[in-house]
From TrEMBL:
Domain RNase H type-1: 60-178
Reverse transcriptase domain residues: 408-562
Region feature Disordered, mapped onto this chain: 284-305
Keywords: Endonuclease, Hydrolase, Nuclease, Nucleotidyltransferase, Protease, RNA-directed DNA polymerase, Transferase
Name used for this protein in its record: Reverse transcriptase domain-containing protein
Gene3D superfamilies: 3.30.70.270, HIV Type 1 Reverse Transcriptase, subunit A, domain 1, Ribonuclease H-like superfamily/Ribonuclease H
InterPro entries: DNA/RNA_pol_sf, Rev_trsase/Diguanyl_cyclase, RNA-dir_DNA_polymerase, RNaseH-like_sf, RNaseH_domain, RNaseH_sf, RT_dom
Stored CDD domains: RNase_HI_like (cd09279), RT_LTR (cd01647)
One Pfam family named in its UniProt record: RVT_3
GO biological process: proteolysis
Amino acid sequence: MQTLEPESQKKYLVTNSEDPKAQILFESSGMGNYFLSTETGTKGVFVQEKDLHEVWTLQFDGSCATSGCGAGVVLISPEEEVIPLSFKLQFFNTNNTAEYESLLLGMQAAKERGIKNLKAQGDAELVVNQVKRIYQVKNERLRHYRNAVWDSIEEFDAFSIGAIPRAQNDMADSLAVSASLMLPHPGLKTNKYTIEVVFRPSVPDNSQHWQVFNNDNHLIAFLEKSENFDELYFEGSTSPCRESINGQDHESGENDGICQLKGNKIPKGLVSLERLFDRHDRFIKKKKQNDPDSSPETEPVNIGSEAHPQFVNIGKCCTPEEKRKFVKLLKRYMDVLAWSYADLKSFKPKDVQHNIPLKEDAKAFRQKQRHYNPKISGTIQAEIQKMLDARIIFPIHHSTWVANIVPVRKKNGEIRICVDFRNLNQASLKDNYPLPIMDQVLQAVTGSEMLSMLDGFSGYNQIEVSPEDQFKTAFTTPWGTFAYNRMPFGLTNAGATFQRAMDFAFKGMMGKVIVVYLDDLTVFSKLRSDHCDHLEQVLARCREHGISLNPKKFVFGVTEGKLRGMWLAKKEQRLMPKELRLSKTLLCLQARMVFILSSER
């Protein structure tokens, strides 16, 4: 242990950072009145004794969602005055970098307010332990963040950091989640706090991620390097888009961190997730040589009347006689097809219901109502009305469990109402019913001469929630509180319940004429001549058990197609090409884009 002058010993305890005594002092449970100090000019970790009434508390949390990332900061004064701060992060982040950003933004806010003694608290143990040197940092970007925190610590007289349970960090968490879900209007004000928009990361980002903004400065997508695209257009607009790379300008524009692209071009080799979500005609493509199709070759065929046409997709490889048989078969089973919520049926209750058993120590939780983008509030309200009309949900006035909705834009442009069931899921007992093993699914399909891909219409909503558990699914909106009659997306055991129901409905047929992975149904036939009969068997089972199928997603009579990221063909199964596979890049679903595929190698 290093020796200090007597007058210094009255104020400081100095050890090397690897000394066990330092590790004990770092732990929040054993810290007492000691705080990590950064007195310059002396080596080692410094712990300074301070009176508690001089110390401010900083609670921080980060959040990442499909709509972007956010940071939540809560500063608490010695007199317990609370200052909430919320930040929209308009650059590429992971969960860990978002946590670091929230810590650094909180420390910056503390410095701007003249705070000298700070106690930081977060629920991300990885970040906390990296800052405390308990964990090594192998990721280069996280190492930069950790070093930035250390540099920032030097500007405080006393600083400590410790981990706290998530339940004690709920305010910072709510601020981070709210910011991640908001559209990035700079200085957006709520009734209690302002959401600030941050365009640049706190540390240099050397990863190859680009940010694309529309003309309203809304972040549209993060782009990763690839060799497949060299041009980017916004749907329905000829205006140039804007971009920035790693928060640094290529050509200075009028907005910090954003620049104007000339001729709608971005550097060759950028690719986004957007093309994975929509395959309609508005996407202009030039295929590279030797690249397989992203979907089977099909053509629309009307199975309705001329006055009310209803189209399904049938493979171009089918003979006229096969197409005639398919159309005739579908017309006999029109009651199985759901073109809208009004046509939606449900599994027979005697077959399956969704139960929500809770842990013995579970406590009910009511989430506070969140704010929603006013631009889509009308769409959300219309979707809720559709669900009411279809009796998927019902109004409820008294419930001990209340969650918030999370509107998500689907690939067809419509809004899907999801619910934040995190609290209910944490309190629920886990259903361990297994999902199919993909190797076995592919083995069953191998060697098939003809395939048909079917899809359930709003699959989960076809299963009823047991009456005694419906109140647990309550969610709040500006138009009232509702609960689910039918099983919603987002429940921890919903997938297990749905797979169990499908296995029950197609018992005796699984692996012989059909494979089912949740609501993806693939009918296969080793002999082409048997395929129509196999389809009829499947449709008959759907009618028997009240299963509704989505004809808009049907693909009938093809020799190859895709299933769960795999390309199925008679002789082989292979992963989809790299440009068709999902990556972990975040995507803000606030606009649609059209890409032109480069024909150059």
